[in-house]
Amino acid sequence: MKVGFCLHRNWLGEKPELVKLLDELGYDGVEIWQQAFEILGLEGVREALKPYRLEVAAINPYFDFTTSDTSYRDSIELAKKFIEYARALDCIRIRVYTSKMGSFKSSDEAQPIHWLRAINGIRTVCDIAAEYGIMCLMEVHYGDGQLYDSSPSTLRILKAVDRSNLAVNLQPPLKGETPYESAERLGPYVKHLHIHNWIGRWGNFTFLDSGDLDIPRFVKILRKYGFDGYMSIEHATWRSTEEIARHEVKYLKNLIKTIEDV
User: Residue 140 is part of which domain span?
Assistant: First the structure.
């Protein structure tokens, strides 16, 4: 397993001191968001990463297959561009979103046309990415108007798309289930994690070792199904980002050593 850190928006360009710190602390890789490519360009992203040994763990564009035929076509073209970016950066993981926030609030409200567009769009992107050995990661979580906001909706898309390079980036909690239930149901498909902890409710974040989620229990369930991917820190803004980065890498490196030595 590896430890990653999500560089939201254009943190890569705006927070060079953070990127340097992540490298010094021993993070294995970073995730790069669409905005960094829009602002810096591919060469700018490459130059910003050049001084460091950090791997590009994933790149995270925003697709919208569901809103309209136009947004569908635009998303396919965006996917082609970001697959080329992934190739240029030796990155083997790219995020696939289904929807623009606001199209619908949850999978329960989605119409048949939304499901059809999403399934066809993800399948098309998977087929393009497969030529280059790139994995397509569904960022599975609740609350952003994505179709995969629960284990049943995620399994529905996995089954319908039916591509071996489609996998799950699990970010609990999901709708109507505990994180441990999500890990059991989706375990065989989870290849990446956005890992958080919280107290009382999602969004009330705290350090990984002090929240409601029993992180070792959660990760051990996934290991049972062969999980060996990245655990990436996301939403690191609830207190000093640098403090979060320092604390969480120590915790996760120790957790990995403890679990992998068993």
Answer: 2-260
Per-position pLDDT tens, the chain of length 262: 999 999 999 999 999 999 999 999 999 999 999 999 999 999 999 999 999 999 999 999 999 999 999 999 999 999 999 999 999 999 999 999 998 776 788 899 999 999 999 999 999 999 999 999 999 999 999 887 789 999 999 999 999 999 999 999 999 999 999 999 999 999 999 999 999 999 999 999 999 999 999 999 999 999 999 999 999 999 999 999 999 999 999 999 999 999 987 6
Strand spans (E) along 61-161: 93-96, 135-140
CATH of the domain at 200: 3.20.20.150
CB 218 within 8 A of CB 193: no
In the chain, the number of structural domains is 1
- Distance of alpha carbon 158 from alpha carbon 28, whole angstroms: 28
